[in-house]
Structures are given as C-alpha cells and as structure tokens.
Specification:
By secondary structure, the protein is of the alpha/beta class. The protein has 2 domains: about 160 residues, Aspartate Aminotransferase, domain 1 (Alpha-Beta Complex); about 260 residues, Type I PLP-dependent aspartate aminotransferase-like (Major domain) (Aspartate Aminotransferase, domain 2, 3-Layer(aba) Sandwich), CATH 3.40.640.10. The chain has 13 helices and 16 strands. The strands form 4 sheets. Strands 4-12-11-10-7-5-6 form a 7-stranded mixed beta sheet, sandwiched between helices. It has a 4-stranded mixed beta sheet with strand order 1-2-3-15. Strand 1 and strand 2 form a beta hairpin. Helix 7 runs parallel beside helix 8. The protein starts with a helix and ends with a helix. The structure holds pyridoxal-5'-phosphate. Pyridoxal-5'-phosphate binds next to helix 5.
Length: about 425
C-alpha cells in the first residue's frame, strides 16, 4: 500500500516546488493553535502562519463555530443581483476598522485577485473619465501575486522571468530602505510629472517576498503626498501586512495620508478560507456610476463573496478585536525585541529587522560552505527541530500566529540561534 506522500507524488503538482528534486511532502492530519500534527503524532510549531495566512492559529474554536453555523443556513449564492448577511456584515465591519476614507468593499478570492481588481479599478477610473493613463508605479523588489497583472507590478525576478514578454510596462522605483529614502523620493517625483501615470501600488512598511525588506512610515507618507499632489491613485497592498501583523490593524494606521485603495486577503479569514477584498474611496466608486453601461466595473468571480468565506472572515475579525489578541500581539513584539538584542551580536547575523510581529534575520553567507543551498539547510534544520520556518534565501523570518505561546516562541528563537551556530561551524 502506498502512503499518502507517495499517492500525492503520483498525482499532485505543488506550488513553488521543483517536483523533480523536492523531498516528499509531509502529510499533516491536524492543526491546533500554533501547532501542526503529522501522521506519526509529531508536532511542528507553525512559525510562518502557513504562508502568512493563519493569524489566529489553526482551528480557532470561535472561527470553527461560526463556519458551522453558516453551513446550516446558506452555502453559496450568485452575487450579481443577490446579497446575503455575511457579505454585508463583513463589509460593514471592515469599513469600521479601515481608514475613514474607505467606503466600498469589492470581493474576490485571494490576494492576487484583490490586486487585479485594484489595478483594473485604477485604470478604468481614468478611462471612464476620458483620460488615457496606462502606467503604474511600483517598488522594484515588490511582490503582488502570481496572476498576470499582479506579476506585471511585481519585481522582474526569476519567478516571473518566463513571462517577461507578456507583462505590461511598469515604472519601478527603489524601495526607500533606511538611508535610501532620497533616491526613492527623487524617482517618484520625476515619474509623477508624467501625464500617463494611473496609480502607485506598494506593500506598506514590509515587502514580504523580497525578504521582509522594511522601510519607515515617514517616507511612505512623503511618497503618498507626492501622489496626492499629482492625482496619482494610491493602492496599499495590505494582503500580508493587514489584520494586526505590523502591530496595528493595518500598516496604514502608521500613516498620516490614507491610501485610496486597499487590497486584503491572507489574514482576512484568519487563514481558514480563501477570500480577497479590494476596498476603495468614494471618489473611485463614483467614477463608475453612469447611465452609460460601458462604465460598469465588469469584473467578478464565480465564488465572489462566498457566504462561508465571509462568515469565516467575520469570526476572524471578532477574534482580532478580542483584548487578548492585542495582548498577544504586544507580547510577541516585546519578545521579538528581546531576541533581536541577542541574535544581533552573533557573528553570522548580518542584520535584524522588525516591524510589529514580523522579525527577519539576515545571515552572513560569504563565509560559509552553505552558500548555495543555505535555504534548504536552514529549512531542514528547523523541521528536524519541529519548527516550520521557510527561509527566503539567507533570510530567516518569524511571522507567527498571534496565539503562539511565550515558550513556543522561545523554541523558535533557539532554532534560529542553532542555525547561526551551524553557519559559523561551517566557516570556510
Ligand atoms: C501573498 C501576497 C499576495 C498574493 O496573494 P495570494 O493569495 O497568494 O494570491 C499579494 N500581495 C502580497 C503583499 C502578498 O504577500
């Protein structure tokens, strides 16, 4: 009899996986809080919130209960010409915590579609008013998803290389990391003078896939100011930073200027169901109101506003607003700060960065024999120690579910120290 991993290998094609060389996948049979359980009963601390989605841990009882209730009532209904209470209630609740200028919620299925919707809204906003604006400004190292529009506004990298010729032209600017703010401001100022710029899309404060690259709210505010002065629509891709990740409900809470459009997914349902949201300011929405049908926003997915997904998101938002969640977030931030002070003295630690509940440690690579396969070496070391960490090259980050305990976080940090020591032992 074949085991599950073998049956998987006969029929499944995994994401971001070189199927020829990848190790067999690990079957997981149960999730509870910060822990994943395999078939043999081993547990793994999910220190990356299962690709940044699982904000409240696995199988949170409050979220599970709301799903069960919804399953008794309505599974799905077409969302053109119909509505339902989970969609309306979720929109109301989201607008309560999004910045004041956000007035409308458009549903889709995931982070990439939330970005597609935002880009199409921005382009058509101008087209509906008779302007020809077809350029987007984005950060050079950004990641906004895997569909074609989202890939177009993402970095030109190994991930998108086979598709370069199909991606639309984008005006890229440098990420304003500390010390590089002036370069970035200068580039945006220059581009902002062009008459054909429709929008500026950005990951606020943290560029996740780039390697948890971080920059300050002050410079983002300056960038937003330039956009406002030049009638450039601003799109905050908060797919990763939303729902408490940076310490506030949204990264945009750290800003004076409010972005015009928000993209949300990942933590939206606490990682339980696939759902995307694009919210916008009133002036964007108004540009689509007309007696002329051609000005309609012609976009929608079969599962738009799926009631189960919306009910899940309502429950996840409720958990986010629990006082204990705020306490947990603050505790994680404090623990990360204390660990920063320790790891930064390690000779193989090149840099430590932290924004809210995200901590990233960049290891020195030049001096170790692991230069080429450092990512796999670090990943395997963590798994052997029953911690799920997914290095981005030589960058290791912790992005935990908020329910992770003090002790569990200490175990994660101990594994990271082991990684640093392993690199040191394998000094050339
Ligand atoms: C993950 C991510 C996306 C894409 O979301 P998917 O649900 O994976 O399509 C978009 N933007 C950012 C900032 C992300 O981190």
């Amino acid at each position: 009899m074949l085991n599950l991993a073998q049956r998987d290998q006969a029929v499944i094609w995994h994401p971001y996986t070189q199927m020829q060389t990848a190790s067999p996948p690990l079957p997981i049979v149960k999730g509870e809080g910060a822990l994943l359980y395999d078939e043999a009963g081993n547990t793994y601390i999910d220190a990356v919130s299962s690709w940044w989605v699982n904000t409240h841990g696995h199988c949170h009882p409050h979220i599970m209960q709301r799903i069960n209730q919804q399953l008794q009532k309505l599974d799905h209904v077409i969302f053109a010409g119909f509505t339902h209470s989970p969609a309306v209630e979720l929109a109301e609740n989201l607008l309560q915590i999004l910045p004041d200028n956000q007035k409308r919620i458009f549903y889709s299925d995931n982070g990439s579609t939330a970005v597609e919707v935002a880009l199409k809204m921005a382009f058509q906003f101008w087209a509906n008013q008779g302007f020809k604006k077809d350029k987007i400004i984005a950060f050079r190292e950004s990641y906004h998803g895997d569909t074609f529009g989202a890939m177009s506004v993402s970095s030109r990298s190994a991930f998108t290389q086979p598709f370069f010729q199909y991606l639309f032209d984008v005006l890229f600017i440098d990420v304003p990391i500390p010390g590089k703010e002036e370069d970035c401001l200068k580039q945006l100022t220059e581009y902002s003078q062009r008459p054909d710029v429709a929008a500026f899309i950005f990951e606020p404060l943290v560029l996740g896939t780039a390697g948890m690259v971080m920059y300050k709210p002050k410079v983002l505010d300056e960038l937003l100011q330039i956009c406002k002065e030049n009638q450039i629509i601003t799109i905050a891709d908060e797919v990763m930073t939303g729902f408490g990740r940076t310490g506030e409900y949204f990264a945009s809470y750290y800003l004076q200027h409010q972005p015009d459009i928000f993209c949300l997914s990942k933590g939206l349902t606490g990682g339980t169901m696939a759902l995307g949201v694009t919210s916008c300011a009133e002036f964007i929405y108004n540009a689509f109101l007309s007696q002329d049908k051609s000005k309609t926003f012609f976009h929608g997915h079969s599962f738009t506003a799926n009631p189960i997904a919306c009910a899940t998101a309502i429950a996840s938002l409720e958990v986010l607003l629990f006082p204990e969640t705020k306490e947990n977030i603050n505790r994680i931030i404090a623990q990360h700060q204390a660990f920063s002070a320790i790891i930064k003295n390690h000779p193989f630690c090149k840099e430590v960065r932290q924004t809210g509940t995200i901590i990233a440690i960049e290891f020195e690579t030049g001096l170790t024999s692991y230069f080429n396969n450092i990512r796999d070496v670090l990943y395997n070391l963590a798994m052997e120690n029953q911690v799920l960490l997914r290095p981005l090259g030589n960058i290791i980050y912790v992005l935990p579910p908020y329910c992770i305990s003090t002790e569990q976080l200490q175990i994660v940090y101990a594994v990271i120290l082991k990684m640093a020591d392993l690199l040191e032992q394998n000094k050339n």
